[in-house]
Fold:
Amino acid sequence: MAINIGARRAAKNQKRKAVVAEKRKAEVEANTAAGRVRQTLAFPIQHCLVSEGLFENGMGMVVLARGETTASVYMATFLLDTFALGVKDVFFRPIAGGEFAEYLRHMSVSSRMVPAEPAYARKLLRDLVVWARGNGIAPHRDFAKIEPIFGTVNADTWEIDFAFGHGGKPLIMGDPGDPRVAAAARALKRQIPEEPAALPAPDAAESA
Structure:
């Protein structure tokens, strides 16, 4: 009898430990960027904006915000280089409505932020990542964690071919001392083989 009671207590303790471990795991997951992004999917999209002149300037932003109301939202920003580097930086955080409006005003000093369909913005991001990867340049390390903030938005509903690069070719801008810029330059050099040296013109005496 005592053995049975001890076994039941051990089983209960084991079950309790498993429950506590699962709760801790859930708490850790919720505190990660990917976990926080998943939590926002319960809220509707309040804003989706893209920098005007993105393809002419080669630099710009995509901003998407979700929230129960416009008074407080969860904002994801993607810094883009459409000339070469693809998705350069990604940022995600909660922000009050007034602060969000001020952020957009600040961003619009260099390039006006204009409303965009979420499907268009998602296709832009995905196509840019594919294009840059084709040149050997990976997106920012947090892109895969933050991009799911678009939720069920279907990028395939937009049929558009984006013209990345400058004059149809990658063009690296920025400080050559920047590690990411330097790495991109090396990647492009590997992807684009050097043109073979021209053969010397035949000697006139030999061709006679």
Notes: The CA atoms of residues 10 and 115 lie 59 Å apart. The first strand starts at residue 45 and ends at 51. The helical segments are 2-31, 33-40, 54-57, 97-107, 118-134, 143-146, 179-191, 204-207.
